[in-house]
Amino acid sequence: MKALIVDDEKHVRAAIRMLVKWEAHGIDTILEAPDGQAATEIIAREAPQIIMTDMMMPVKNGAQLLEWIHSQAPHSKTIVISGHDDFSLLRHTVQYGGTDYILKPIDAEQLNAALDKAVETWRSEEAVRNHSLERNIQINQIKPVYWDKLLSNLLADPAQYESTAGTLHKELGLSAETTTIRVAILSLDTMERSLKDKFYSNQELLLFSLINICNEFLHVQHRGFAFRHWNSDHEIVLLLWLAPDKAAGVLSEINEGMRQTLRCKLDFGLGEPHSFPLGLSASYKEAQESLNQRNLLVKTSWIHSIGTSSFVPPKRLLRFSDFEERLLVAIRSGSHEQIQMSVQLWIDAVKEVDTITPRQLNHWWNEFNMLKRRWVQDFFPDQGEDNSELKAISEPSGFIIPLDEQGILSLKLWQQELTRSMQQLSKLMLEHQQKGSNIIFEIAKYIENNYSQDITLQDMGHRFYLSREYISRKFKQQFHVNLSDYLGKIRIDKAKLLLLNPHLRISQIAEMVGYQDEKYFSKVFKKTEGVSPNEYRKLL
């Protein structure tokens, strides 16, 4: 905490410094000012929590300083130290927030008591201020989620409008006379490559930025409102209720704002005008459909609607599964060249298609992921559920359509992604095969299955017909720990699971994981986990 002493007499300032037990009050910075004017400059710069001031001073006196503090630094607590027993000065002190009025000559006990009171008052008020600030932050964090949930539910069930009408009119400026509305969708699935790369690790920030840009334009004349769709991680929904016939122009304005702010544009799907509120769902589905049926191979507009769609059904249905055998052989070969060639065959077939819609692309993506899940199950029958790398391959995150800088589907980028994913799977498969034939992994598996027994290097040497030295050296090379530490970790991990059972005694658990001496088990457990088995169980 900081304290400021204001007095035109230097010896008085020195006396106050000497009489106060600063550290006991939590004050570590003591400032001084010879008059009220100098004090205002220090207060503006340093923001001291406690101010001790004389009343009669040149330039700006104490009464004027109190008035300035009351308006400019209201959280500071002021103690007046004066040589004048004047009721008008005391009244002025109380009127402008002073916590005490002390007469000179200064009594040390009285001064410390006044300071203690001022410090406690400041701390109490600061706690209230911090609580209020935290509450406001929480409210501001919850508020967008509230609107996302409420409006998403309204899209699904427009009949809920009656119960929320008052809130919508008051908070969003939705007029009670509104009878027609249009729904637009901004989908992040079709963002430009540059924007995808810029916000690769922080999609939440991207959503926040896009919604803010949309609402900056929609708040003008209360034209509408944008929110994040509750049931979709990649979808922003815009409700457009003012002049629905001009909705396309509003979306173009928003897209231009995005171009200026984020250096790129995004695709909007726009539903037809429908009655409000009952037509919300219909307009939303039309907006979805207009996005899903546009041709990704050409770019004629950023605003898509059913009426302007140039969708032409493909002449023949191309299926990813038709190429499964060739892709699987390439993966099993472990050859990067074979994988690249097999993916190239697929891309060549895609190039023969005249129309590729987001719906078709998503169908191919799901086919590919279904094949990968099947391959993972075939290649790794015992590891698919536990291996994080395999899980990432077989259960990828949502698909974002690979677009170039002009917003057109980039087959090159898609080819690179398919090739990378298949090469990664092939690499893991080869590593798994190598592990299966590696004697060290057999030893590790034996330890994992027999950890409760007395296992030594000599036992392993006899069992696997290898020297102790060879096993010790190779085991550490492979797992970066020696065999006894590896065994110890397995035992402690199993013990932690057994400690979840309150009916098992510590001695029983020790024996179950391979320790005949309960005290030695407790010593090893504490060394590894930092707490004894009993303490660990209590923490659980």
TrEMBL record:
Gene3D superfamilies: 3.40.50.2300, Homeodomain-like. CDD domains: REC_YesN-like. Residues 2-119 form the Response regulatory domain. Residues 441-539 form the HTH araC/xylS-type domain. SMART domains: HTH_ARAC (SM00342), REC (SM00448). Keywords: DNA-binding, Phosphoprotein, Transcription, Transcription regulation. The modification 4-aspartylphosphate is found at D54. This is Two-component system response regulator YesN.
